[in-house]
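User: Before I run my own analysis I want an independent prediction to cross-check against. Here's the chain; please return only the structure tokens and, at the end, one sentence I can use as a sanity check.
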Amino acid sequence: MPLHMTKIAFGAESPAHLRQRLESYAAAGEVRLTTRYLPKRHEEMVGGSLYWILNHTLVGRSPILGFMDNGQGRTWIRLRPELIPVRSIPKRAHQGWRYLEDKDAPPDLGGEGADGRDEMPPKMLGDLMKMGLV
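Assistant: Structure tokens:
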């Protein structure tokens, strides 16, 4: 099972805005995000996904194509230019990126394991989760 990572969708106003930003790179075939360090577990993440955090909630994922040195002492995280919606779950903001094990990753919307929570407004779902009701 691949390893995933989480990252803040900095500058994105909504999932639709994030999707539009990612899809604007479709002609190039990939999105390249710059990070300071190559993750130690980068080989495990090829075939995994980068899960985007927006407003303290995981909202979607972009498949990881690989990692590449950018020639300036930094590393590019190479992503497929798409946003696959996932079940919204609360996630604290953090700097940089964090690993996410496959067992802890939320399912895709409409995919296996989907239930009625997927149709709830994200704020309502977040409130219910905080109360331990979902």
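Sanity check: Residues 15-23 form the longest helix (9 residues).
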